[in-house]
Amino acid sequence: MDAAQSIATDLNTLIPIVNHWFHLLSAVIWIGGLAFLVMAVTPGLQKSVAKEHIKPITDVFYQHYKKVAGILLVVLLFTGGINLHYVNQVLTSQTGTSIQHHAKYLTVFFIKLFLVLCLLTLFLYTVIFKSDDEDDETEAYEAVPFQRAALWMGFFIILCAAAMKHLHQ
What is the pLDDT of residue 160? Predict the structure, then answer.
């Protein structure tokens, strides 16, 4: 094997690893941030801050989280597409058939994609339609709108990802 083939082989190994790492890192930051807001920030503020101050404080958290989450969702969609390409290459090399002939993998993939699209819809809905002037005086004010639903979707997306990882080996 000459040097050019060795470099090409190393890149063909390195690119999917780095891409998958970015995908996992983005998912961990996104779901970890959301879990922190749901499990720590919102309940902590509800117990320690006067009711009229909760909304302004959580809105500041949400404004920062919204920027990060938007970037992470773009990274997740982009790196997920690249991951699908490399999984297709692995399946083709292992079985001789491409990804469209693997019904279990595709079923889990489409469930995951559906959940991601639901999450993206919730995110875009809150970014586009959530008014800063809303008077939300409810007891269960959420820093991130639909945060519990989004967190559960995130948990199931991670479950689908784990299943997909083991369905192509």
Answer: 95
- pTM for this model (two decimals): 0.81
Provide the total of helices (H) and of strands (E) in the chain, helices listed first.
Answer: 5, 0
Tokens read off for 47:
């117990």
> Which amino acid belongs to residue 76?
L
For residue 116 the two structure tokens come to 């991601």
> Residue 87: phi, psi to the nearest 5?
-65, -40
For residue 137, the 8-state DSSP code is: -
The confidence score (pLDDT) of residue 130 equals 66
pLDDT at 132 over 60: no
Closest CA to 72 of 123, 143, 17: 123
CA–chain centroid gap for 50, Å, is 33
158 Cβ contact list (under 8 Å, min separation 6): 27, 31
pLDDT given at position 3: 65
State the pLDDT at residue 115: 95
For residue 98, give the 3-state DSSP assignment: coil
